[in-house]
Amino acid sequence: MYLWIKAFHVASIVIWIGGMLIMALVLQTLQKTSPERSAAEFRLLQAVRRWDQRVTSPAMGLAWGLGVALVYFGGWHTAGWLVVKLVLVLLLSALHGIQSGYLRRLVDAPEREASGLLKNSGALTIASVAIIAAMVVVKPF
User: Fold this and answer.
1) Residues in Cβ contact with 71 at an 8 Å cutoff, skipping those fewer than 6 apart
2) Structure-derived torsion over alpha carbons of residues 71, 77, 140, 129, reported in degrees to the nearest 10
3) Most CB atoms closer than 10 Å: which of 1, 3, 93, 106?
4) How far apart are CA 12 and CA 6, in angstroms?
5) pLDDT tens digits for 116-141?
6) What pLDDT, in 10s, does the model give residues 65-98?
7) pLDDT in tens, 43-61
8) What's the gap between Cα 85 and its chain centre?
9) Separation between Cα atoms, residue 4 and residue 11, nearest integer Å
10) What is the pTM of this model?
11) What is the secondary structure of the chain as a DSSP string?
12) Sign of CA dihedral 109, 114, 115, 120
């Protein structure tokens, strides 16, 4: 059973992180100072918002739930590497929330400037995932 949980955990993470990277790309691409949004841009924003609501956010929830199950079944409660992973996963979850909120506000206020955090959210996501993968595979402490 542990391996099935692990497989679905990894699949849900791939979907979640993929969705975050899509949002990072769209948010960076649609940054502009014009108060008008073209019909194509508006449709793209709406499509990404629907994807986030229907796919990315549920995948994040599933990754969390399955991750808790893996910690329980694997007996990882006291592992030091898990603390590092959890901190980064919490930060990724918060970043996902910030991306989602900004995406929602961008529909109404296209001239709204993204923060430095949002402008670099793609790179931050990739760096966090790389560190998490190292922690899980190598288990350095």
Assistant:
1) 77, 82
2) 40
3) 106
4) 10
5) 899 899 999 999 999 999 999 999 98
6) 999 999 999 998 899 999 999 999 999 999 999 9
7) 999 999 999 999 999 999 9
8) 14
9) 11
10) 0.91
11) -HHHHHHHHHHHHHHHHHHHHHHHHHHHHT--S-S---HHHHHHHHHHHHHIIIIIHHHHHHHHHHHHHHHHHHT-TT-HHHHHHHHHHHHHHHHHHHHHHHHHHHHH-TTPPPPHHHHTHHHHHHHHHHHHHHHHHH---
12) positive
Q: How many degrees, rounded to 5, is the angle at CA 82 between CA 78 and CA 84?
A: 125
CA–CA distance, 38 with 131 (Å, rounded to integer)? 39
Q: Please name which of 130, 62, 137, 69 lies closest in space to residue 93, comparing C-alpha atoms.
A: 62
Tokens of 41: 């841009």
Give the tokens for residue 107: 């529909």
